[in-house]
Amino acid sequence: MTTHLRERCEESIKLEQTMSALYRLYSTHCTEDAKFWWQLHLEEDDHASILAALYKSHLPYGWFPAELLPLDLEALLETSRRATAGLQSAMNAPLPEAEAYRFAVDIEESIGESVLQDAIAKPTVSSIMQLVQNVIGESKGHAARIRKLIADKGC
Questions:
Q1: How far apart are CA 127 and CA 133, in angstroms?
Q2: How far is it, in rounded angstroms, from Cα 128 to Cα 150?
Q3: What are the residues whose beta carbons fall under 8 Å from the beta carbon of 70, sequence distance 6 or more?
Q4: What distance in Å separates the CA atoms of residue 152 and residue 155, rounded to the nearest whole number?
């Protein structure tokens, strides 16, 4: 097990947890769209749990599907820092709705979130990746779903 892979995995789990917390917060601040944000919160929480389970059960044996993680640790750390700062900012003072939604899209399209989304959307022959894709199911495409919400609301 490489240290770099372990760090990328740990940071990816942290990012998923941060986005889960952000979306949970949005579900309380953006009451008109509470169900939408609550659903994304649950999906991000599931993503974090899946990565954590794979980290614990597969990483020590070299079986972790590395395609779920960004190769660029520094870019992943930067995305994680931005997500954490956005969460802390929203906890202190809720962002205007349009700004909050654009921030969510920005993070979803950043390295970390986008790599996971791309990996689970691609055809694969890997049995581990097939399992991940089956477990994640339809809880993907977050950026596109948020963009649709923005368009529907005219934000």
A1: 10
A2: 35
A3: 8, 12, 76, 111, 112, 115
A4: 8
Q: Is the dihedral of CA 91, 94, 100, 101 positive or negative?
A: positive
Pick from 26, 22, 67: nearest CA to 45: 22
- Write the DSSP string, 122-145: S----HHHHHHHHHHTT---HHHH
**How does pLDDT run across 81-110, given as a tens digit for each residue?**
999 999 999 999 988 999 999 999 999 999
141 three-state secondary structure: coil
From residue 42, give the alpha-carbon distance in Å to each of 35, 46, 105, 124: 11, 6, 17, 25
How do the domains of the chain map onto residue ranges? Answer: 3-153
pLDDT digits (tens, 9 = 90+) for 63-85: 888 888 898 999 999 999 999 99
Return the closest-CA partner of residue 73 out of 2, 8, 118.
Answer: 8
Q: Is the dihedral of CA 65, 63, 8, 57 positive or negative?
A: positive
Is this structure's pTM higher than 0.70?
A: yes
